[in-house]
Fold each of these.
Amino acid sequence: MQGRVEARPLHQERRPTQRRGRASARPTRVRTRDPFTAKLGVRRRRLTFSRATYTPPVPRRLLIAYGFLLFLAVLLRTAWLSDHAYLALRTADNAAWGLGFRWNPAERAQVFDQPLWMLGLYLARMLTGEVYYGTLVLSMACALAAAWLLVRQAATPLGIVLAALLLTLSPTFVSYSTSGLGTPLVHLLVAAFAIGACNRGETGSHTRWGFIATMAALAALTDALTLLITLPVIGRHSPLASREGGQPPSQTWRQSPPDARGLSLVSLTLSLAIPVTALLLWAALAIYYYGSLVPMATLARLNQLTPADRLHAGAAFLADAVRRDPILVATLIVGLALPFVQRTAERALAAGALLYTVAIVATGGSTWSGYGLTIPFVVAVLVIARQPALAMRRIAAPALAAVAILAVIAPVHTIASHAQYGLYAPPQVGIIDPRLQDYQATGLMRVRRNQWFPDHPESIRGLQAGEAQQAIAASPRPGFFGYAAGRSVHVLDPTGLGDPLLARLPPSSPVPPGHSIMELRPRTPPDGYIESLLADRNAITNPALAAFYERVRFVTRGQLQARGRATNAALLALDRRAPASSAGGRN
C-alpha cells in the first residue's frame, strides 16, 4: 500500500530530524518523479516504515531505581548480625535500663569502638524496645542511603550500572552493610563527605564547607581513621589552597581583598577544627568515663602484637581480601589510581583513601576478611561512577565483562545467597568470613515465629546461666552469651574483650597453628581475681598487680565524682600494660 504523498518545493525540502536514542530500524524513503510535479519543481515523497519500532533510551531515574532495587533485594537476602555486634547491643540494653553504657553493669568497660553508632543503637533500642529488628533497620537504612548517593552521582548510564553492580556484587561490602556494626554509617558519612567535596565548585567556594566539616566530624566520631580521608581533602580544597589564574595559593591569598582573605582563613580553620575537636571531645569523655582512650579489644591487641607482627598480619589480610573479594580489590586499584593518572580534582580524595588503606594494612588488618577496606571502596566507586569516559560505547562491553568475570571467580556470590548459607560450612581458622560463621544464628531469612534470636548454642547457655542466677560465667562467644544471660550475670571474657584488667595483661599462650596473629588470645586470670569479682573487693595476691588493680577498680567501679578519680583515669589511660611482675597467674 502506498503511503501518503506530500508535495514540497525542492528548495523547502527539510532533512528529517534525528531523534534521541537508538532506533532499531530507520524509516525507508522512496522518491519518485512524474511529469506534472517535475514541471512545477516539486518532488513527490512516499514514506514507508518497516515492522521494527523505535527504541527510546532508558530514563536516568528508572535506571537508578533498578540499581537501587537490586541492591535492596541482595541486602534483604544477606542481612545478619554478628557476635561482636551483640557486645554493643548488650551495652545499649544496659543503658536503656538506666545502668549506663557498660558491658557488665558492675564496671565501666568500653567494648565498642564506634561512639556515634553506639548512640544510634541506643536510640533504636529505646524506640523499638528490642534490638534485632531495630538494628537491622538502622543498618539497612544507612546502607541504602549510601548506595543511593553513590549511584545518583554517576555521570553516564554506564556509570549508574557499574556503581550498582560493584556495590551489589562485592561480598565484603554486602556483608558489612548489615553486620550490626557501624560500617554502613561510615559508608554513608564518607559518601556524603566525598560528594560534597567533589561538587564544591558547583555552588561556590564557601557554601559547602559547613556541610563538609560536619560530615567529617560525624565520620570521625564513628571511625577515627576517617580523618586520614577527610583532612587531606579539606586541606587541598580549602579556599586558602585554591588557585586562581595559575598562581600559587600564597600569592592568590595575598592579592585577595582583606574581607575575602579573612573568610578564607576562617573557613580553613573551622573546616580543620570541627572534626578534630569532635574527636578530642570524645577522647576526653572516654578517658573520664572508662579510663581508657581506646576500646578493650584494641588495648588487648596492643599488649600481644609487635610492629613486625602487624606487618605480617597486614600482608596476610591483604592476600585474603584478594582471594575472597577480587571485585573490591580491583575497584580499589582502578578507582584510586584514576585521579592520579588523569590529574583531576579528586586526587586529594583518592590520596586520603589510599592513606586509609595503608593504615588498615599496616596495623595488621583484622581477623575478619576485608573489614575496613569497604571505606576506601566507597570512594573508589564514586570516582569510577563519575568518569565521563564511560559515555564512550567501546568501553561498555569491556567494563561489564570485567565486572562479570570478577564476580564469577569470587568464592561467594551475593546474588545467590540463601537461607542455608553457612549451614554446612566447616569451622574457620585464621582470617574468617564472619557472615559465614554467624548467619545461621542471626540471618534475616532464618527468622521464624516464636524463635529466640540469636539462635546459637552459646545463646542457650546464656539463657540457662541467667535463669540459674550465676554470678560469673565465661564463654567463647561473649556477644551471644552475654546478651542472653542478661544483666545479673558478670560475663568474664578470657581474651580481655570486656575486662579492664585482663585487657592489660599479656596473653598466656602462643598463636595456635593456622590462626591469625590478630586473633585475641586468652589471658590467665591472676590469683585472687575471681574472688575479687565475687566479693567486689581487691583479693589479688600479687602485691604489684594488687596495687595496679586497686587503681583499675577505683576508675571503673568508683563514683564518677569521687575525688581524684579524674586524675587516676587520665593516668590509667596512659598505662596500657599491667606491671611486669604480674605476668604470672593460675596455670
Amino acid sequence: MKTIIRRVLVAAALLLPSLVLVSQVESAHPAAAATSFSITTNPPLTPSFDPAVFDYAVRCTTSTTTNLTTTGSSQTVVGGTTFTGPVNLNLALVAGQEVTVTYEGAAYYIRCLPSDFPNYSSAVTGTPQASNGYFVTIGGYAVIFNTQGVPVWWYHGTSTDAKFLTPSEVAWDNGAAANKDIEVRNLSGSLLQTDGGGSNPLDPHDFQLLPNGDYLAIMDVTRNCPAVPSQCVDLSSWGLSSQSTITDNVIVELTPSNQIVWQWSVADHIDVATANVNWRDWFPDVIHMNSIEYDGNGGIIFSARHLDAIYRFDMTTGDVTWKLGGSTEPESLTVSGDQYLDAGGQLFSGQHDARLLPDGSLTVHDNGSRANRAPRALRFTIDTSTDTATEVEQVTDARVTTPSPFTGSVEKLPGGDWVADWGGGDFTTELSPAGVPQLTITYPGQASYREADVLATVSALRQGMDAMVAPLTNVPSVPATAIPSSGATLSGSTYLDASATNATSVQFWLYGGSYGYSGDLVGTATPTYYGWLYSWNTTTVPNGSYALLSEAFGSGGSAFSSHVSITVNNAPPPATSVIIPSNGATLSGSTYLDASATNATSVEFLLFGGNGYWGYVAGTATPTDYGWLYSWDTTTVANGSYVLLSEATGAGGNAYSGGVSITVDN
C-alpha cells in the first residue's frame, strides 16, 4: 500500500508544484470556494466533493495513509501550512481526527472514521429542514449526521436512547445491564455525571431533563406479590393468577445526586388487566413504557406500548386526565379524523415517542405492530374541554410497507417536514408533509432506537470531536531543492542540497529513467549551516534523465519539494587488452608493445615481477591505426620472468587488461 501511495504522490509531484503529508488545523468558512477548486482522496471522500458541502468523512483506517489532492491555482492551507496552488497530500490520519483544507476563505473538514464505525450511505433528494442534523444510535455508537448525511460527531459505547439535554450536554444509557444508569457527557465526551443505577436502576427507554434541573426517568419494578397483597394484579381474566406478579413501570423524578424526590406507578393508577388487550403474551412485561414527557403544565405524557395507548396524568394528584388510543376508559378522548379508527380498527399498535409540540399538538410514531399495517407519523390536537382529539396530520413512507416490530420515532420540524426513524428499519429519513423523502441515511444491518433532535451547532460538534482527538500540528512546509538547479547535468560525485523548515530529516528521491514512478532513495541528508546536504555518487545510477525531489519529515507529517529535472551523464569506463606480445613470449632488445583500448585517452604498459617490479611503467603508448604502440628497450630491465599489463585511462575512469606472461632474455 505504501508503494502504491508513493507512486501516486510522485506522479502528481511531477505535475504539481508541491506534495505534502500533513494533518489539520480547523478554520471557519464564510462561503463556498470557487467551482474550479476540488478535493479528492484515497480512500474516497464521503460524499464526493462539492464546493458547497463543508464536512466529509473518510474511512482512512483501512490503510496507513490517506492521499488527498486539490485543484485550484490560489493558495491552499492544509494543517495550518500555506501552499501555493494545487497540492497533493499523504495524510497520516487516525480515527476521529480531522484535517482541514482552506481555499479562498472556505474551510472543508475531513474526518477519519473508526475501523468499526457502522457502514452507512446517505442520499439527499430534496431540501432538508433539520437545522443541525440527526442524532441516532447504531452499532454501539451515538452518531450525529448533518443535513448532507455526513457523520460530524460520534461517541462509542452507547446502547439505546441518546439525546441532547442542553446544547452542550448529551445523555444515554451506558449499555451495561448490571448498571442500569444514565450517563451525561459534554460534547468532548467527558463524563459529567451518572444518574440512576444502584438502588435506583433505570429503564433505558427514556430520560428527560426537567425545567428545575432534575431528571425524569423510568424504573422497571417487579411488584412484591404475594408478600404485599396490594402489589398483586388480578389477571384471572387472562387465564392467569388473581395474584399475578407483573413488571410495573414507575416514573421517577431524580435529583442530580440520584435522589428520588417524586414517583408515580402505572399499576397503582391503571387497570392493566383491561388496558392490555393485544400484548398479553408479553407477561410479566404488561405495560412497556417507552417515552415520557413533561408537558410544562404540571402533567406528564407517556406512551405504553403494550397498552397501545398514550396517557396524560397530573403530577400533583396522580390522576389520569386523558387517554389516547387503546381500550375505552372513562378518561379516553374521543378521536376523529383517523382512517383506521373510523373503519373500526385501532388507533395505535405498539406506538412510540409521544411528544408535545410548542403549539400544544401531540406527535406519535404508530408502529402498526399488531394491526398488520405500515408505521406512520401522526399529529393530534387535543381539546380537554371537550375530551376530544383530532388527527390533523398523517405521514407515511412508500418505502415501508410492513409493520414496525419495535422502537421508532417521529419528529415534526418547524418548517413542516418530518424526521422518521421507522422502528426496526435500517434508515432514518426526513420527509415532506406529503411523505416525499428529502434525505435518507441508511445503515444496513443496524437499527436505531430513535432519532433525536440536535441542539448543538455543527461548529460546536466539530469542536467536541477535536477535543476528543487533538488535531495534528507542526506540518512541514514544502522543501526546496537548492542544488542542483533544474536542467543540470551531473556526473561523478556531487553534493545535493535542500532547504526545509519544521523538519527532523530530509531525503532525496530519484524518479524517472529506469525507476519510473517507483522511485529510488538516493540518500538521507545531513543538516548543515548551508542546508541539508548529501554527497551523491552519480555513477550508482544509469545515465539518463531524472526528476530529483527532496522529502522533508516532521512531527506533523512529510512534504515533497517540487521536482528538479536533471541528467546523469557519466562517461563509460575504458577497456583494454594486450595484443603484442603474446602470452609466453621471450623478448630481447627493442620490441613493440601493442594494446587495444576503448573509451581511453591514454594507455600505459606496466611490468610486474622479475626483481621486485610492482607496477613498473614500461612506457606510455601512442595511438595508431594498429592500436596503442610503444617501442620498448628490454635491456632497461633485468633478465627474468614478468607479467605485462596495459592500463587504459579515460573520462569514465581507468581499467587494466589481463596479464601477459613474458620472459626477458638479453
